[in-house]
Write a structure and sequence with these properties.
By secondary structure, this protein is mainly alpha-helical. 54% of the residues lie in helices and 7% in strands. β4, α7 and β5 form a beta-alpha-beta unit.
Length: 325
Protein backbone atom coordinates (compact mmCIF):
# COMPACT_ATOMS: atom_id res chain seq x y z
CA UNK A 1 0.00 0.00 0.00
CA UNK A 2 1.23 3.51 -0.78
CA UNK A 3 0.84 5.65 2.34
CA UNK A 4 1.32 9.40 2.72
CA UNK A 5 1.19 11.88 5.56
CA UNK A 6 2.61 15.28 6.43
CA UNK A 7 3.19 17.45 9.47
CA UNK A 8 3.56 21.20 9.80
CA UNK A 9 6.82 22.77 11.02
CA UNK A 10 5.18 24.61 13.89
CA UNK A 11 7.49 24.11 16.85
CA UNK A 12 7.92 21.24 19.28
CA UNK A 13 6.22 17.90 18.66
CA UNK A 14 4.31 16.50 21.62
CA UNK A 15 3.29 12.98 22.58
CA UNK A 16 -0.20 13.58 21.16
CA UNK A 17 1.31 14.15 17.70
CA UNK A 18 3.50 11.11 18.13
CA UNK A 19 0.82 8.69 19.33
CA UNK A 20 -1.87 10.01 17.00
CA UNK A 21 0.18 9.92 13.79
CA UNK A 22 3.97 9.58 13.83
CA UNK A 23 4.01 6.25 15.69
CA UNK A 24 1.84 4.89 12.89
CA UNK A 25 4.26 6.21 10.29
CA UNK A 26 7.11 4.27 11.87
CA UNK A 27 5.06 1.08 11.92
CA UNK A 28 3.80 1.51 8.35
CA UNK A 29 7.23 2.10 6.83
CA UNK A 30 8.24 -1.48 7.64
CA UNK A 31 5.84 -3.09 5.16
CA UNK A 32 4.50 -0.30 2.91
CA UNK A 33 5.62 2.29 0.39
CA UNK A 34 5.61 5.42 2.55
CA UNK A 35 5.87 9.08 1.58
CA UNK A 36 6.18 11.59 4.41
CA UNK A 37 6.72 15.34 4.13
CA UNK A 38 7.09 18.54 6.11
CA UNK A 39 4.04 20.64 5.19
CA UNK A 40 5.67 24.07 5.05
CA UNK A 41 3.13 25.43 2.54
CA UNK A 42 0.28 24.63 4.91
CA UNK A 43 2.03 26.50 7.72
CA UNK A 44 1.77 29.77 5.75
CA UNK A 45 -2.00 30.00 6.37
CA UNK A 46 -1.60 31.11 10.00
CA UNK A 47 0.55 33.95 11.42
CA UNK A 48 4.28 33.14 11.34
CA UNK A 49 7.69 34.85 11.22
CA UNK A 50 9.50 34.35 7.88
CA UNK A 51 12.90 34.50 9.57
CA UNK A 52 11.95 31.52 11.73
CA UNK A 53 10.44 29.31 9.03
CA UNK A 54 13.65 27.65 7.82
CA UNK A 55 14.71 26.97 11.39
CA UNK A 56 11.33 25.34 12.10
CA UNK A 57 11.55 23.20 8.95
CA UNK A 58 15.04 22.00 9.92
CA UNK A 59 13.96 21.24 13.48
CA UNK A 60 10.90 19.34 12.22
CA UNK A 61 13.14 17.25 9.97
CA UNK A 62 15.47 16.44 12.87
CA UNK A 63 12.55 15.59 15.15
CA UNK A 64 11.07 13.07 12.72
CA UNK A 65 14.40 11.45 11.95
CA UNK A 66 15.08 11.25 15.70
CA UNK A 67 11.86 9.41 16.50
CA UNK A 68 12.28 6.79 13.79
CA UNK A 69 11.48 7.96 10.25
CA UNK A 70 14.02 6.02 8.19
CA UNK A 71 15.00 7.65 4.83
CA UNK A 72 16.16 4.23 3.64
CA UNK A 73 12.62 2.87 4.05
CA UNK A 74 10.52 5.99 3.39
CA UNK A 75 10.56 9.07 1.20
CA UNK A 76 10.85 12.14 3.48
CA UNK A 77 11.03 15.64 2.02
CA UNK A 78 9.88 19.27 2.27
CA UNK A 79 6.55 19.95 0.56
CA UNK A 80 7.54 23.22 -1.17
CA UNK A 81 10.51 21.51 -2.84
CA UNK A 82 8.05 19.71 -5.14
CA UNK A 83 6.27 22.42 -7.16
CA UNK A 84 3.63 19.98 -8.41
CA UNK A 85 1.85 20.18 -5.03
CA UNK A 86 0.73 23.74 -5.74
CA UNK A 87 -0.01 23.10 -9.43
CA UNK A 88 -2.29 20.17 -8.63
CA UNK A 89 -3.95 22.23 -5.88
CA UNK A 90 -4.99 24.84 -8.46
CA UNK A 91 -6.27 22.21 -10.88
CA UNK A 92 -8.31 20.55 -8.13
CA UNK A 93 -9.70 23.92 -7.01
CA UNK A 94 -11.65 23.95 -10.28
CA UNK A 95 -13.58 20.80 -9.34
CA UNK A 96 -14.01 21.38 -5.59
CA UNK A 97 -17.35 22.97 -4.55
CA UNK A 98 -16.97 26.06 -2.34
CA UNK A 99 -19.71 24.75 -0.04
CA UNK A 100 -17.56 21.75 0.85
CA UNK A 101 -14.78 24.06 2.05
CA UNK A 102 -17.03 26.37 4.03
CA UNK A 103 -18.37 23.51 6.14
CA UNK A 104 -14.93 22.25 7.14
CA UNK A 105 -14.75 22.14 10.96
CA UNK A 106 -11.09 23.13 11.10
CA UNK A 107 -11.71 26.15 8.86
CA UNK A 108 -14.41 27.38 11.23
CA UNK A 109 -12.16 26.85 14.24
CA UNK A 110 -9.13 28.55 12.66
CA UNK A 111 -11.29 31.44 11.43
CA UNK A 112 -12.37 32.07 15.02
CA UNK A 113 -8.83 31.63 16.37
CA UNK A 114 -7.20 33.96 13.81
CA UNK A 115 -9.95 36.52 13.20
CA UNK A 116 -7.47 39.08 11.88
CA UNK A 117 -5.96 36.64 9.37
CA UNK A 118 -8.82 34.74 7.69
CA UNK A 119 -7.04 34.37 4.35
CA UNK A 120 -8.04 32.44 1.23
CA UNK A 121 -5.30 29.90 1.96
CA UNK A 122 -7.09 29.00 5.19
CA UNK A 123 -10.24 28.24 3.21
CA UNK A 124 -8.57 26.19 0.44
CA UNK A 125 -6.17 24.46 2.85
CA UNK A 126 -8.10 21.15 2.45
CA UNK A 127 -7.70 21.31 -1.35
CA UNK A 128 -3.93 21.58 -0.98
CA UNK A 129 -4.13 18.66 1.43
CA UNK A 130 -6.10 16.71 -1.18
CA UNK A 131 -3.45 17.62 -3.77
CA UNK A 132 -0.71 16.36 -1.43
CA UNK A 133 -2.50 13.02 -1.20
CA UNK A 134 -3.69 12.59 -4.78
CA UNK A 135 -0.39 13.73 -6.33
CA UNK A 136 1.17 10.42 -5.28
CA UNK A 137 -1.97 8.34 -5.94
CA UNK A 138 -2.02 7.55 -2.24
CA UNK A 139 -4.10 4.64 -0.98
CA UNK A 140 -3.93 5.23 2.78
CA UNK A 141 -3.46 8.31 4.96
CA UNK A 142 -2.70 7.83 8.69
CA UNK A 143 -4.50 10.63 10.55
CA UNK A 144 -6.15 11.55 13.83
CA UNK A 145 -9.94 11.81 14.14
CA UNK A 146 -9.88 15.57 13.55
CA UNK A 147 -8.51 15.07 10.01
CA UNK A 148 -11.00 12.46 8.81
CA UNK A 149 -13.25 15.16 7.33
CA UNK A 150 -10.36 16.35 5.16
CA UNK A 151 -9.68 12.84 3.88
CA UNK A 152 -13.35 12.52 2.99
CA UNK A 153 -13.04 15.73 0.98
CA UNK A 154 -10.00 14.32 -0.84
CA UNK A 155 -12.12 11.27 -1.73
CA UNK A 156 -14.91 13.55 -2.97
CA UNK A 157 -12.52 15.60 -5.12
CA UNK A 158 -10.94 12.45 -6.59
CA UNK A 159 -14.38 11.07 -7.41
CA UNK A 160 -15.57 14.31 -9.04
CA UNK A 161 -12.37 14.63 -11.08
CA UNK A 162 -12.53 11.02 -12.28
CA UNK A 163 -16.19 11.36 -13.27
CA UNK A 164 -15.61 14.60 -15.15
CA UNK A 165 -12.28 13.97 -16.87
CA UNK A 166 -11.57 10.24 -16.64
CA UNK A 167 -9.93 7.96 -14.10
CA UNK A 168 -6.68 9.30 -12.64
CA UNK A 169 -6.90 9.20 -8.86
CA UNK A 170 -7.66 6.36 -6.44
CA UNK A 171 -9.89 7.33 -3.51
CA UNK A 172 -7.67 7.36 -0.40
CA UNK A 173 -8.72 5.88 2.92
CA UNK A 174 -8.14 7.37 6.37
CA UNK A 175 -6.06 5.06 8.55
CA UNK A 176 -6.95 5.62 12.21
CA UNK A 177 -5.06 4.06 15.11
CA UNK A 178 -7.19 1.64 17.12
CA UNK A 179 -6.23 3.52 20.29
CA UNK A 180 -4.75 6.97 20.65
CA UNK A 181 -6.30 8.68 17.61
CA UNK A 182 -7.08 11.58 19.95
CA UNK A 183 -4.83 12.16 22.97
CA UNK A 184 -6.34 14.67 25.36
CA UNK A 185 -4.71 17.60 27.15
CA UNK A 186 -3.14 16.86 30.54
CA UNK A 187 -4.63 20.03 32.04
CA UNK A 188 -8.03 19.64 30.36
CA UNK A 189 -8.87 16.02 29.41
CA UNK A 190 -12.03 17.12 27.63
CA UNK A 191 -9.99 18.86 24.92
CA UNK A 192 -7.46 17.47 22.47
CA UNK A 193 -3.79 17.85 23.50
CA UNK A 194 -2.58 21.06 21.91
CA UNK A 195 0.17 23.63 22.37
CA UNK A 196 -2.52 26.33 22.17
CA UNK A 197 -3.79 25.19 25.59
CA UNK A 198 -0.47 26.08 27.21
CA UNK A 199 2.71 24.17 28.12
CA UNK A 200 0.99 22.24 30.93
CA UNK A 201 -1.34 20.60 28.40
CA UNK A 202 1.30 18.47 26.71
CA UNK A 203 4.61 16.64 27.06
CA UNK A 204 7.11 17.38 24.29
CA UNK A 205 8.93 14.42 22.74
CA UNK A 206 12.21 16.02 23.81
CA UNK A 207 11.14 17.23 27.25
CA UNK A 208 13.63 16.79 30.09
CA UNK A 209 12.79 14.43 32.96
CA UNK A 210 12.12 17.24 35.44
CA UNK A 211 9.44 18.81 33.22
CA UNK A 212 7.87 15.44 32.40
CA UNK A 213 7.47 14.70 36.10
CA UNK A 214 6.04 18.14 36.81
CA UNK A 215 3.45 17.92 34.02
CA UNK A 216 2.32 14.33 34.58
CA UNK A 217 2.06 14.65 38.37
CA UNK A 218 -0.10 17.77 37.99
CA UNK A 219 -2.32 16.24 35.27
CA UNK A 220 -6.05 16.62 35.89
CA UNK A 221 -7.74 13.41 37.03
CA UNK A 222 -11.28 12.72 38.23
CA UNK A 223 -13.37 12.35 41.37
CA UNK A 224 -13.02 9.06 43.21
CA UNK A 225 -9.97 6.81 43.41
CA UNK A 226 -10.89 3.88 41.17
CA UNK A 227 -8.59 3.53 38.16
CA UNK A 228 -10.96 2.55 35.38
CA UNK A 229 -11.06 3.33 31.67
CA UNK A 230 -14.26 5.33 31.13
CA UNK A 231 -13.72 8.35 28.80
CA UNK A 232 -17.14 9.87 29.55
CA UNK A 233 -17.15 9.59 33.34
CA UNK A 234 -13.40 9.55 33.94
CA UNK A 235 -11.77 11.49 31.06
CA UNK A 236 -8.61 12.34 33.06
CA UNK A 237 -7.60 8.88 34.20
CA UNK A 238 -8.76 7.37 30.88
CA UNK A 239 -6.38 9.69 29.03
CA UNK A 240 -3.46 8.69 31.28
CA UNK A 241 -4.29 5.01 30.76
CA UNK A 242 -4.36 5.51 26.99
CA UNK A 243 -0.94 7.17 27.01
CA UNK A 244 0.44 4.48 29.31
CA UNK A 245 -0.96 1.69 27.12
CA UNK A 246 0.52 3.07 23.91
CA UNK A 247 4.00 3.62 25.34
CA UNK A 248 4.11 0.32 27.24
CA UNK A 249 2.33 -1.90 24.66
CA UNK A 250 0.11 -3.17 27.48
CA UNK A 251 -3.65 -3.37 27.17
CA UNK A 252 -5.97 -1.10 29.11
CA UNK A 253 -7.30 -4.14 30.98
CA UNK A 254 -3.78 -5.11 32.05
CA UNK A 255 -3.22 -1.60 33.37
CA UNK A 256 -6.52 -1.50 35.23
CA UNK A 257 -5.49 -4.72 36.95
CA UNK A 258 -1.94 -3.48 37.59
CA UNK A 259 -3.11 -0.28 39.32
CA UNK A 260 -6.20 -1.63 41.03
CA UNK A 261 -6.49 -0.08 44.50
CA UNK A 262 -3.19 1.83 44.06
CA UNK A 263 -4.61 5.30 43.45
CA UNK A 264 -3.96 8.08 40.95
CA UNK A 265 -0.62 9.14 42.45
CA UNK A 266 0.92 5.72 41.84
CA UNK A 267 -0.39 5.67 38.27
CA UNK A 268 1.14 9.08 37.63
CA UNK A 269 4.51 8.12 39.16
CA UNK A 270 4.69 4.99 37.04
CA UNK A 271 3.64 6.85 33.87
CA UNK A 272 6.24 9.53 34.57
CA UNK A 273 9.04 6.97 34.67
CA UNK A 274 7.69 5.21 31.58
CA UNK A 275 7.72 8.47 29.60
CA UNK A 276 11.20 9.41 30.79
CA UNK A 277 12.56 6.02 29.70
CA UNK A 278 10.63 5.96 26.41
CA UNK A 279 11.57 9.48 25.33
CA UNK A 280 15.24 9.33 26.33
CA UNK A 281 16.38 7.66 23.04
CA UNK A 282 14.57 10.40 21.09
CA UNK A 283 16.38 13.12 23.06
CA UNK A 284 19.77 11.53 22.49
CA UNK A 285 19.19 11.00 18.74
CA UNK A 286 18.01 14.60 18.31
CA UNK A 287 21.12 15.86 20.08
CA UNK A 288 23.29 13.90 17.64
CA UNK A 289 21.39 15.11 14.55
CA UNK A 290 21.71 18.75 15.61
CA UNK A 291 25.43 18.39 14.93
CA UNK A 292 24.84 16.88 11.46
CA UNK A 293 23.13 19.69 9.57
CA UNK A 294 24.62 18.74 6.19
CA UNK A 295 23.44 15.13 6.53
CA UNK A 296 19.87 16.20 7.40
CA UNK A 297 19.62 18.64 4.48
CA UNK A 298 21.11 16.14 2.04
CA UNK A 299 18.62 13.51 3.23
CA UNK A 300 15.69 15.83 2.45
CA UNK A 301 17.19 16.74 -0.93
CA UNK A 302 17.70 13.12 -2.00
CA UNK A 303 14.19 12.17 -0.91
CA UNK A 304 12.72 15.03 -2.94
CA UNK A 305 14.50 13.60 -6.00
CA UNK A 306 12.81 10.25 -5.33
CA UNK A 307 9.39 11.89 -5.02
CA UNK A 308 9.75 14.13 -8.08
CA UNK A 309 9.21 11.49 -10.84
CA UNK A 310 5.94 10.33 -9.22
CA UNK A 311 4.68 13.91 -8.90
CA UNK A 312 5.70 14.82 -12.47
CA UNK A 313 3.98 11.75 -13.90
CA UNK A 314 0.70 12.47 -12.08
CA UNK A 315 0.69 16.12 -13.16
CA UNK A 316 1.33 15.17 -16.81
CA UNK A 317 -1.55 12.70 -16.70
CA UNK A 318 -3.85 15.24 -14.98
CA UNK A 319 -3.03 18.03 -17.46
CA UNK A 320 -3.68 15.71 -20.40
CA UNK A 321 -7.08 14.66 -19.01
CA UNK A 322 -8.05 18.33 -18.52
CA UNK A 323 -6.98 19.34 -22.02
CA UNK A 324 -3.83 21.18 -20.96
CA UNK A 325 -1.55 19.46 -23.48
Amino acid sequence: MRILSGIQPTGSIHIGNYLGAIKQWIDFQEKNECIFFIADLHSLTIPYKPEELQKNIFEAAIAHLAVGIDPQKSVFFVQSHIKEHTELCWLLNTVCPVGELQRMTQYKEKAKQFKGNVNTGLLVYPVLQAADILLYKTQGVPVGKDQVQHIELARTIARKFNQKFGKVFPEPKALLPKLGAKIMALNNPKQKMSKSLGPQSYVSLFEDSKEIKKKVMSAVTDTGKVIKYDPKRKPGVSNLLTIYSLFSNKSIKELEKKFKDKGYAQLKKSLTQLLIDSLDPFRRKRKELLTREVFVKETLKLSAKRAQPIASSTISETRAKMGLV
